[in-house]
Amino acid sequence: MDQLSHVVIAGAGIGGLCAALALTKQGRQVVVCEQAATLSEVGAGLQISPNALKVLRHLGLEDELRPFAFVPEYAAIRDYKTGEYYLKSPLGTSAESRYGAPYWHLHRADLHRVLVEACLQAGVELVLNAAVVSYRENLERQPVSLLLEDGRVFSADLLIGADGIRSKVREQMLGQERPTFMGQVAWRGVIPVSDLTVDVKPDACVWAGPGRHFVSYYLRGGDYVNFVAVEERSDWLSESWREEGNVDELKRAFAGWHPEVSELLQSARSTFLWALNGREPLSTWHQGRVVLLGDACHPMLPFMAQGAAMAIEDGYVLAKCLSRHSLKDALFQYEHLRKPRATKIQQMSKANAGLYHMHGDVLGRMKLTALQVAGRFVPN
Ligand code: FAD
Fold first, then answer.
1. Which of 86, 180, 188, 331 is the least crowded, having the fewest Cβ atoms under 10 Å away?
2. Alpha-carbon distance 273 to 188, whole Å?
3. CA-wise closest residue to 181 among 230, 229, 234, 231
4. 72 pocket-lining for ligand 1 (C-beta < 6 Å)
5. Residue 70 has what DSSP assignment?
6. ipTM beyond 0.90?
7. Is 217 part of the annotated catalytic residue set?
8. Which 3 state secondary structure label does DSSP give 165?
9. Which of 309, 310, 330 shows the shortest CA–CA distance to 320?
10. Looking at ligand 1, which residue's alpha carbon is closest to its atom 53?
11. Which pTM does this prediction carry?
12. Does 130 have pLDDT greater than 70?
């Protein structure tokens, strides 16, 4: 096996931190360079399905995270107006006994904080204010160097690009190419339950409607409701991929929907607006001593709620491959194991947009979704 003692990671998102923790537990020295000045996450919810939770369990984080989780009773798809159920699939204890791990809702900030604390405790070096601009492969003893905007250089035996959808590492490896706007925007927000005037069911619920859909679920033991409201748009003029959203515009977009949606939105005080971007599957995920993971190599629409889950799986599988093979074989194996799965979920997420927005044979395709919802819990 190659001597691989030092690893440098670009990006302290969920994927980068999972990789850092898994590699540090193997006894490697890991430095993570993060462009942000502080490690505070933008507040919103994440659905963590059993496949991702099994990885977090292996990383020793399940007990730390449990107090912040909410366990939904059902995964549901409902009609935007009548509230009729197209799909009602049990989660809760059923998911746990069927898949060997629970289905949780977590606040992104809680997951991120627990990961940061675990990394620091394990000995990961986290460098903030560290905007990556490029990398250089050398022939010296530590053959790859990460270059920061302020001139600092971090050298290692392996560079992991976990720097998200606008990855600088991906750009240098495969050329400059802007992500594609997928014709949808998403408002996200979190509402304290004490502000609600409507009873929200304890489910992971998608409300499907023409040209738009709405997702709602509880967070933090049921103290908050998280919402994601998606609307099709042909134009997106803003250069920013994430900006403050207009709550009145959001309420207008979902006026006339089932009271569980329209009344819930009456309690929304603020929201962020995301442009949903994607990329075609990349020709390769690695080159020399550089490898990509998470949104840096397979950004996806959030309509399977699997983007973070795939980044978590990537980090863990990459570390496992590095512990079993030479560097060259490990990177090959990693891509071989991960790319078909991530690509399939990218495609399924895209297909769900048409389903949730009632394009075509909705009822027939809802049945297919029931199978997909079940399928997504199966770990590889
Ligand atoms: P990121 O989280 O983007 O992290 C990248 C990190 O790199 C960031 O910290 C960034 O600051 C840093 N960085 C970027 N550029 C540089 C640079 N040049 N130098 C240094 N650092 C840099 N996923 C789920 O599993 N479940 C869900 O329920 C879910 N819901 C979602 C809802 C919405 C509306 C959206 C938009 C996404 C959702 N996702 C969900 C997807 C999930 O958020 C992402 O797929 C996941 O966060 C990707 O993780 P990552 O670590 O690869 O990238």
1. 180
2. 6
3. 234
4. no
5. B
6. yes
7. yes
8. coil
9. 330
10. 164
11. 0.93
12. yes
